[in-house]
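Hi,

I'm pasting everything inline rather than attaching a file, because the server keeps stripping attachments. The sequence lines come first, and each chain or strand is labelled.
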Amino acid sequence: MRKFFPFFAVLIVFSMLLAACGGSAPTEAAPAAGGEEAAPATQSGSTLQTVMDRGKVICGVNKAVPGFGFLQEDGSYAGFDIDFCKALAAAIFGDPEGRVEYRPLTAKERFTALQTGEIDVLIRNTTWTLTRDTELGANFVATTFYDGQGFIVRKDSGITKLEDLDGATICVGAGTTTELNLADVFAARGISYTPLVFEGADEATGAYEEGRCDSYTTDKSGLVARRVVMADPEAHVILDETISKEPLGPVVRHGDDQWFDIVQWTVYATFTAEEFGITSANVDEIKATTENPSIKKLLGLEGDMGQKLGLSNDWAYNIIKYVGNYAEIYDRNLGPDQPTYIPRGLNSLYTDGGLLYAPPVR
Amino acid sequence: MQGTVPESQEKIPFWRNEHTLQWIAQFTVLAGVLFVFWLLYANMQRQLEMLNLPISFKFLQINASFDIGESLIEYSRSDTYLRAYLVGVLNTIRVAVLGIIFATILGVIVGVARLSNNWLVNKLAAGYIEILRNIPLLVLLIFWYTGFFLKLPDVKEAINVGGTYLSRRGIAFPWPLPTETYATYRWVLWLGVALAVALGYALYRQGKKTGRMPLYGLWSLLLFLVVAGIGIVVLQPYVMDYPHLPDKGFNIIGGKTFSPEFMALLSGLVIYTSAFIAEVVRAGIQSVSKGQVEAARALGLNGFQTLRLVVFPQALRVIVPPMTSQYLNLTKNSSLAVAIGYPDIVHVYGTIINQSGRAVEMTMIMMATYLTFSLSTSAFMNWYNQKIKLVER
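And the predicted assembly:
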């Protein structure tokens, strides 16, 4: 009988601990707990507050696609998506150095990581679709890269168009829109194929390079990037055909409007900066000399744009200063000097015939 | 015992009554456990409500719209998530059942070899066990997949061994296809089963009567095989479908193909688990005391009879319970398939949660599935254990 009480005591302590843990999550929503109905309003601000308290943004990224999100040999991350993580940290904290924590995620893990709050924002070449926007508890913020799905094949295979792939084995990443497009388009065109589905891009392209599959399919940007790290890039060609629309962009958790706005305007700030010709090199000079009211608003010299977002007024200045405008981010990762060069095409400003169009900062 | 206090004595107040206290303690613990579970569940539910994702299983009826490479049943992109999941379940069962059979055979051989008096055989078996037991299964799987099956020649230069093609697209071997006489042949097979059972029973009865038990199982099997063989020769119920290389195209056509993913998973699981089974078998055989063998020999039983009638029945009692956990391990370890792209339960589950966003529901379903596998395996093994258990007097 005596033996029993220590156990009992431990159990009570344990359940109290659990109760405390269980209690801490809802307390974020609780302060304004006039009623549970008010939850969405009270909940907003919580992500920003969490990030501020932590001193870091936790960003879900890719580590296997050079040019977009790639874990380099020295252990640091680089890429187009990575730079948007940095831009977000710059908007919140100023200098983004050491302010971003990267979480490499597979395509399959990413939405669960976002739903559960493991990451604050998902910037991992993720395609915006209706189902994902509605059913995954996620909100797509903006499109940072307009992409489309393509196929890579071995040069000596003689494949030049989709129909040549009849009967082929095709490698694809698990839980991607490309997996679904592949099924849709091939069924619609009556082309038979065997899918071979892998967790990560490394495994999928590895199997493709080994000759396990005849083709590997993903977004064209991804194909360009993966081709660079193949043993012999020259032995592979990307088919001209594009079978889908793949607008890629950052994703936030459903139900936190303030955080949504912050991420969205971080993206738009980079567009706007390019539009005004403000770069990381000339931002200080422009800030000192400009008379343009729109630029003044953007750089926080006029109005209280930053405060409206819950940030400091020099939020956009910090983004441009520490990370750069959209063109700088693009050229640094996907520009003509890079091995992962992708012509800007649709990803140009609307003034240059592209699709990038930011609402006015005012 | 304080419970049996004479009535004449003063009644013990309930806070000092051990019996009552026990009940209160039990109840409190139960309430505490239930409360913790409720807390966890309520917390999850509240968080999901906040994300606008209340728990619901309706999504299982939605069109899955993705393809799966290997399937034992008809499946296309227009089928439901439920059917897609079923494909994964069947793929897991396929690899688990074959894995258990082969791992047992290999494990018994290695386990017996481990006890051999031949120095070389003994040490080889010991080396096999020690090396394979100590390599993580995932490493073994990746080795088999990228180091062996993907290093086989390209389809165009496939190795042809007696009609079986080996290439990095898998192993294609001849496979019988049923002809029109197949329906008749099925009846012949049933007849074979009936005859075999009858023969086995007759031999068993005779053995009981005379005290000299023949190998009735072996004779029954033999009879069945003879009937089945005659049936094949006379009726020609199958036509062999031979695999061949197409002039144009990507994969070998015809016959049956086991994909490299399946082969790598099966080989990895079988080899890894067989090392453990070998140890179980060795321990079982060694648990039978030497005196038993000596007594059997003294009674005039030969080596094989000693093994079959004395050692094995006793060893089996020791072997079966740990063997059950090896079988359970093999089934659960098959979930590592996800690393090499074999569409098992976990693989399909991953795709489904990503496409439907129903992580909580799918995880519940997956847990229930594995639990069902494990419980039915152990139920069967417990039944078997009960059957072979020493009848105590």
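Residues 163 and 191 of chain A are 7 Å apart (CA to CA).

If the labels don't parse on your end, tell me and I'll reformat.
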